[in-house]
Amino acid sequence: MTRIPAATRTSLLTKVLFRIARGRYGAVPEPVAVAANHPRLMMAAARHELAVQRGAKVLPESLRQLVVYRVAAHLGCSWCVDFGTMLQRLSGLDVDRLREIDAYATSPRYTELERRALAYADAMTASPVAVTDEQVAVLAAELGHAGVLELTYLIALENMRARMNSALGIVDQGFTSGEACRVPVRTERG
Predict the structure, then answer these.
(1) Pick from 143, 170, 178, 123: which is nearest to 1 by CA?
(2) Which residues are within 8 A (CB) of 92 and not within 5 positions of it... i.e. 6 or more apart?
(3) Which residues form the Carboxymuconolactone decarboxylase-like domain (predicted)?
(4) Domains of the chain
(5) Quick count: other Cβ atoms within 10 Å of Cβ 17?
(6) In whole angstroms, how far apart are CA 109 and each of 81, 101, 106, 115, 123?
(7) Which value, in Å, is the radius of gyration of the alpha carbons in the chain?
(8) 10-residue block means of pLDDT along the chain (190 residues)?
């Protein structure tokens, strides 16, 4: 049970947002239902998430999804892990390799670039932050400055999401195996 319950009184705009979420994910994501207690902040967050989704296109989708998943797993946000697994499945990505995310440094299921990006995600998620000049330089040589900025932004954003969900007691919702996930796998890239 969340520490703050889902909103019971919702505006027409919130109802529309909930309907869109149900159509897209099979259920209203619990962080959205809880955030509806503060409609202006919820709408600001929704606009931000949409802008990030539209703007973060420098890196391959698989790398973007992977580092976000790593942060969620590293911080122990079961909701984020659940939702992230569903998003990867819907994108047609290999979700089986997520079982080896904690062993990414040695697992043959991850490329060298993925290992460097995952190590960067771990260093950014550490407290205090443990990112080195060398990590940034190596990633910049391979991804360019825009790629490193996108990578950094996505990792920082997932840190915020995961920490907020954990603080509010929002846990997995069954997007990977339960009733919520009735959304079929995409067959075309969109």
Answers:
(1) 170
(2) 185, 186, 189
(3) 43-122
(4) 58-167 (1.20.1290.10)
(5) 20
(6) 19, 9, 9, 10, 21
(7) 17
(8) 93 93 93 96 96 98 98 96 94 94 97 98 98 98 98 98 98 76 37
